[in-house]
Amino acid sequence: MTFYLFPAAGRLSLGRLLVGLVCCLCWAQPGQSAPPNVLVILADDAGWGDFSFVGNTNLATPAIDSLARGGATLSRFFVQPVCAPTRAEFLTGRYHPRSGVRGVSLGLERMAADERTVADMFQSSGYTTGCFGKWHNGTQWPYHPRARGFATFVGFTEGHWGTYFNPLLEFDGELLRDHGYIADRITDHALTFIDHSCTQAAPAPFFCFVSLNTPHSPLAVPDAEWERFCARPIPLRGPLGADENLEFTRAVLAMMENLDHNVGRLLAALDRLEIANDTIVLFFSDNGPNSDRWCGGLRGRKSSTDEGGVRSVCCLRWPGHIPAGREVRQPTGAIDLLPSLASLAKVPLPSGKPLDGLNLAPLLTLDGDSAATARLAAARPLFATHAGKISVRTADHRLDAEGRLYAIETDPGQTIDRSAAEPEVAAQLRALATGWRAEVLEGAPPRKEERFSVGYPAWPAAELPARDGLPQGGLKRSAKAPNSSYFTNWKTETDAATWAIDVHSAGRYEACVWYTCPATDAGSIVELVAESAAEGMPAAPLSRSRPTPVPAWDPPLNSGEDRVERVGESFEKDFRPLSLGELNLPAGPCRLRLQATAVAGTCVADVRRIVLTLLEPAAAPAR
User: Fold this and answer.
1) pTM here?
2) Among residues of the chain, what percentage have pLDDT more than 90?
3) Are residues 423 and 542 in the same domain?
4) How far is residue 269 CA from its own chain's centroid?
5) Could you tell me if 129 and 11 lie in one domain?
6) Which domain holds residue 468?
7) CA angle, 432 as apex, 73 and 286 as ends, to 5°?
């Protein structure tokens, strides 16, 4: 079944093509090679210890191991404790609070619209750009990946996805039911993009971001991988020892071997197309492990600012430029990736906002003043934050969120507080944490209200998922985690779902609700009301859709695929769009209220999303 969601937008302009031509001509000067392709592969919730090349004998990751052998490893590479902040730091080269990212849902995951991303940079330099898989830095325009420098997007914009087999994915504006396992299919679409980029009559270099959403829960994996692990002994255990949840661990390890298989498929494609020597490959993960499994004795896991929560593997391969087997031991981080890739590919950095990251190219290639770069990397602190907590990492120490000091190179498990033994170091790092909190974490003015943008002519249809709305009355989300959830328990006329929106273009809009409803409850009357949201003023109706009866549509939950019982995530089902007619919306802030004027049975409907499509902008007033 195919549903239309967004119109295609953002065709490559003549000006951008000319920029790309100039870029290629600059690279083609005597003695200079063509610009390299860039392939970035990001894992989701894979901890530092989830790879065989770091010593985990519970599994085998030969493809990722080959990247470590064939290029450079950043052996002390740090990200943030959760997904969206790390992704924002990779995309911008700036600590995530500076770009407005403060969480993983409810609008807190969005980067400010004026941030320039690594994809913007490469696209402006003539690269063909594509993003495949999990985005997690905004859903509506101008936060959507198509507005952030990616000419192609296949995947999902929320923080996690509820169905791993035959998932509903967005394909450049359309929601389509895909067929197969989600990590395999994301890889398939990336391979198609790479093939297409390389077989054009005048091929341009590509920037391909493959953001696999595994081993993030829910824990689902194809039979072939699961059968290798479902009864396998787990000799290496995490901090819980005999109390470790081995079913969870086995499922994660099976998902990791599937992930590695897909990395291998991408690397094999580079060999097949004879472009491996012309392609920078970067692999890393977005935070620590999502369970208490083996992680080399590091303390902490996902959501923790301790070493285990923020240390990730990171491998970069570019044959002939980055020496095989190179190890960078100085502390590095996700903020360093944008300036480093830009330097390697000779792509200009964005002007305006200062970067926090360091250009690591001299350390990776051993060209230029690598000793000076090594001193800079060793001397600077790196900061991690989550839920108001801050940890500081230097070359030799970690100050944890409670102000305790650890000699982290000799005590990676953070077992002995060195604050009394090294009071000057402890005082210095506490002062750094206090200053960073004031400048970065609290420096950006907080948004008074998370409003979600609609009405951009470049992308006329705006999705407003249940994640971005608020339940009123007895309405509630289908799971604790807002991402990939839906509203349920809609039983009375006083129950409602509301969305705070910011209308970019005044005009006429079509409203659709994506719903399910049992046949025994069909016939309730629903409407969507736009209310004024002026600060300090009572809400007043601005426009109202037509009263619409809810037809029967009651598909089953997709609930038979998990290897381990899910806890925080919602199951999904096949929601169907129902047109509610039109609204006339003024520009500016307002609030949408989805409500029932009559309840036919025991429940009105379950609701996954609202979609507002700009049909006709209002005429500009005569001057």
Assistant:
1) 0.94
2) 88
3) no
4) 24
5) yes
6) 452-617
7) 35
